[in-house]
From TrEMBL:
BP GO annotations: negative regulation of DNA-templated transcription
Keyword terms: DNA-binding, Transcription, Transcription regulation
Protein name: Transcriptional regulator, IclR family
Pfam family, one: IclR_C
UniProt organism field: Stackebrandtia nassauensis (strain DSM 44728 / CIP 108903 / NRRL B-16338 / NBRC 102104 / LLR-40K-21)
Length: 232
């Protein structure tokens, strides 16, 4: 191992061991991946196993342990905490239901929502799983992905590569009856501190209210909401 990244050598080595075991590793593989001496790699892996951060499978290979997931699940989701007031404001500004979506492989998950108070609504409950093949939220979540991550999905999509190019150009997506008959939506990206798109913020409702070009009226409010939420 080269120079210490953090200045705390043993911590850097422990992280290196965890990273090397991400897809499973025997002791020999661990030594090869980490570049650490065999005795050091073995000692650290055993220590991480004692803390349940590593476990051994039936082939005696180390893999990530349950403690990692337990710690992750107790960490507050800063993005969701920040999203609640922003979604409510977006709903009040537009008069339409607002949602936040994250991608999970070939699906997108509604992680947070603010429903319209009355009248005809497009209800997408928190936890709803929607396809990545249709809808403005899916377009936003794919538009800034590298081509190799998008091309395998396009044959299943109700939008094209040209659609995604247009989404990148104007900074938002709109869809009309693409995911569900009678429903229109407008979505914009939410970015992390590095600029990577990590979520899509949306408003949706019946076509009879939003019209056939919902972005003309709603895009600016959705874009600004995405900008306020970005960086969390």
């Amino acid at each position: 191992m080269g120079n210490s990244i953090s200045g705390v050598g043993v911590l850097d080595k422990a992280v290196l061991i965890l990273t090397s075991c991400a897809e499973g590793a025997s002791l020999a593989e661990l030594v090869d991946k980490s570049g650490l001496p065999r005795a050091t790699a073995h000692r650290l892996a055993q220590a991480l196993e004692a803390h349940r951060m590593l476990v051994r499978d039936h082939e005696n290979r180390w893999r990530p342990g349950p403690r990692l997931g337990e710690l992750a699940n107790t960490t507050p989701d800063v993005l969701l905490q920040a999203a609640e007031p922003i979604l409510k404001l977006l709903r009040d500004q537009t008069g339409e239901s607002a949602q936040l979506y994250r991608r999970r492989a070939d699906e997108r998950i509604c992680c947070a929502a603010a429903e319209r108070h009355s009248g005809l609504r497009d209800t997408v409950p928190v936890g709803a799983v929607l396809p990545m093949s249709a809808g403005s939220g899916a377009q936003v979540l794919l538009a800034w992905e590298p081509p190799e991550a998008v091309l395998p999905l396009l044959p299943k999509c109700r939008f094209t590569a040209q659609t995604l190019t247009e989404v990148r150009r104007r900074g938002y997506a709109q869809s009309v009856a693409e995911r569900e008959a009678g429903v229109a939506s407008v979505s914009a990206p939410v970015r992390d501190r590095t600029g990577r798109v990590v979520a899509a913020i949306s408003v949706s409702g019946p076509i009879e209210r939003l019209g056939r070009r919902p972005g003309d009226r709603l895009a600016m409010a959705v874009i600004r909401a995405g900008q306020r939420l970005s960086g969390h």
